[in-house]
Amino acid sequence: MPLSPLEHDRRYGELDQVMRAYAGLRADDTPDRPSEALVAYLRHTWHSRPWALATAEMQLREYADHPPGRLRLRLGEFYAIPDVGLAEGDVRQWLYCLADHIKRSVEEGEVPKPATPATHWEWHARFPELGQFLGGWFSQDMPDEFDDHDAAVADYRNSSDPQVVVRLVGELRELLALDLDETDYALAIAELGMEVDPPAPYSPSGWLSLVAEQLTVSHPGSRES
């Protein structure tokens, strides 16, 4: 029978996070060099959930030690490793390689320095609510759903829990604190799901600053101090 959500997370939850970090990227790790995807996973996890690294190392190694057969995969009783561009016979060795890199990082204290996100997964892992906001309210359908950008921002603010709105404001300010150039801000908001241009005459960073200001307006459901 298929795995329950609890059993899935208990046995494969952090393994799944590692695999998600490879979406759209090459699994070109070697024993001497981790891939861009793994470096991004290590960087974000070290600075947000360092305790999860030991779980990732254990789950990777256990999966490689006991790979599921085709029947159990078909029945949904095991986590299915996504296609990462490797031959089926090479996947186990690759998983051991990832586990070894994570183990070395923890045991030797090799912590990647804070940096601008480098992969699609890392952008969304670091700015999850901003990804929800941009992808949900500023998709290509935005012009059909709202009169303008301001109306979309107001709809998000009025339909979201005040604590979630505050979280988004914090992520906006963190993104602005990276002090990127405008081309990189344009790439960042595209990575995070925005499919329309910022309104004229704003640059990407200028519009993000405006949104942060708009979201600090008292929420209808919030308490006045």
Short précis:
The protein is mainly α. The chain contains twelve helices and no strands.
Question: Which structural category do the helix and sheet elements fall into?
Answer: mainly alpha
Number of domains: 2
Give the overall silhouette: elongated
Fraction in helix: 55-70%
Q: Report the sheet with the most strands, covering strand number, pairing sense and barrel closure.
A: none
Strand content is under 5%
Tell me the number of helical segments per DSSP (H or I, 4 or more residues long). Answer: 12
Task: Report the order of strands and helices.
Answer: HHHHHHHHHHHH
- Total strand segments: 0
User: Please, what is the average pLDDT?
Assistant: 92
Q: Which stretches are poorly predicted, pLDDT < 50 over at least 5 residues?
A: 221-225
Termini Cα gap: 53 Å
Q: Gyration radius, to the nearest Å? A: 20 Å
Comma- or semicolon-separated keywords:
225 residues, mainly alpha, elongated
Structural features, described:
- The protein is an all-alpha fold and 225 residues long.
- It folds into two domains: 5-107, no CATH class; 127-215, no CATH class.
- The protein contains twelve helices and no strands.
- It has helices at 5-20, 36-48, 52-65, 70-74, 91-107, 120-126, 128-137, 142-145, 149-159, 162-177, 182-191, 204-215.
- Residues 221-225 have low confidence and may be disordered.
